[in-house]
Structures are given as C-alpha cells and as structure tokens.
Amino acid sequence: MSWEYRYTLNVVIEDFSGDQNLLMAPVLLWLRDNQPDAINNPALREKLFTFEVDILRNDVCDISLNLQLTERVLVSTDGSVSSVEAITEPDEPEEIWTVKRG
User: Fold this and answer.
1) Residue 25 pLDDT more than 90?
2) pLDDT tens column, 45-59
3) Please, which residues have CB within 8 angstroms of residue 64's CB and are 6 or more apart in sequence?
4) Residue 3, CA distances (Å) to 40, 56, 66, 75 in order
5) 85 and 76 in contact (C-beta within 8 Å)?
6) Which of 39, 41, 87, 90 would bridge with 72, disulfide CB 3.0–4.6 Å?
7) What is the CA radius of gyration of the chain?
8) Which pLDDT score is estimated for 92?
9) What pTM value is reported for the model?
C-alpha cells in the first residue's frame, strides 16, 4: 500500500524589511531539493510557489508564501508486522532535456 500527501504549506513572514531576493533564494533552493519533480516540470512549476505581499509601510511588508507540496508514503508488510516509511524525493536527473518550439 502507498499514497501521496498533497497539501499547501502557508508560511507568513510579518514585518519583513529585508531584501526579498534573500528570502526567496533559500525557498527556491529548498523546493529544488525537496520537490524536484515539480520544479523540473513547467506545468507543475507554474503552481508550485506563489506569494502575496501586504505593504505596511514604504520599507516594511507582510509576505505570505504558498508552496504546493507532495510527500510519498509506502507501507510494507513482513508477516504480521507493517512498517510505514516516507519516501525520499528522487535525485535530479543529470541531464535535463528541453524542447523549444517555434
């Protein structure tokens, strides 16, 4: 038996006054490592990561990040003993092929 959790992780950063690029870079690196199937697929990548910003002042804002995540789970049975295991994400392929149109 196996299944996949699909959920939205919402992270809220309040009173943010730093460089937004320094906030987004580690999020995207984490997604690359933990959701490689989605980040390498243009259709899935389009919905993988969204954010909203509420500007409080000229230099301060609240930021809400929404990440569409998946986690695979495998249940294996050996006699009368079952074990539940979270499956790690597959490694990124060494080569990524793209198709250009037009």
Assistant:
1) yes
2) 899 999 999 999 999
3) 10, 11, 12, 13, 51, 52, 53, 54
4) 22, 42, 22, 9
5) yes
6) 87
7) 18
8) 60
9) 0.72
